[in-house]
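Lecture notes, unit on protein representations.

Consider one protein chain, 100 amino acids long.
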Amino acid sequence: MDRSSVIKLISQTYTQDAIGQQVPHEISRSVYCNVASVSAKEWFDAGQAGLNPQYKLTLFAPDYQGEAIVELEGKRYAVYRTYRSTTELLELYLERKAGI
């Protein structure tokens, strides 16, 4: 597997401020992965479900800890699906969303 791309996996935690509002805090870490386009079938099926698929990332399964946001080449994407392709590889499917 070609792992020449570096992405940031971003998780969010929330804390309460002085007036009781939930304030998000982001924790990011960098991992290596392979970046590919989604297949035509994936693009069509996800589009039918109202999603906007963009990329498929392949990375080692232990590197992923359930993060919902991925930063790739300075742009943020949401993880809409994961797939365990082998015992050690995991595929993340990304979509472009407003507000992340």
